[in-house]
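Appendix B, example 12.
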Amino acid sequence: MPRFRWPYAISSLILVTIAAALSYGFVDRPVALACRGLDRRIVDVFEWITAFGVSTGYLIGFFALYILFRFVVRRRRAARQALFLFVSTAAAGLAADVVKFVAGRARPKLYFEQDLYGMEFFRVSHEYTSFPSGHAATIFAAATALALIFPKWRPPLILFAAIVAASRVVIGAHYLGDVLVGAYIGVITVYLVVWGERWRARRRPAGPA
């Protein structure tokens, strides 16, 4: 597993914040309008793809693998990896949900139908939970965690995550900036989980010699 470096994390947060702000001001609305004008057949394909960003299947699958490896076939290393996948995906989803309810960003639907664009902080109705994308956070957390376990599969995993995340913009569920920040939350959460586990391991008392 790679080491977590706080300077890189802070600098990446600054860059993503700047990118999200620029997207909010200049990119999100034009991209949303362009996607709204896409052929319905294209949108239908991405409606199917977007289902891969739902967290339920990943959480159930990863936890089932943990139970299998921990208590049935008793492979401790595989069990730890399955638990890592579960915790990373769950934490990313929870982090995205917290930011959603604080930001209160109106979804593209409100812009299309009522010309409403912006944020109403702590607005918890579904129409105001656009920022960030929970689907993007989920799929990027799962893909990043899997890529750390299976490095050779990193390119297709990240490409798949990017396509799933992009589907949220294509179908009009989120703005581009929402997806960008959601993806960042997914990736950074995985590395925070890695850092937390290593910090806990360092504090664990050493066993008898």
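The mean pLDDT is 94. The CA atoms of residues 9 and 188 lie 7 Å apart.
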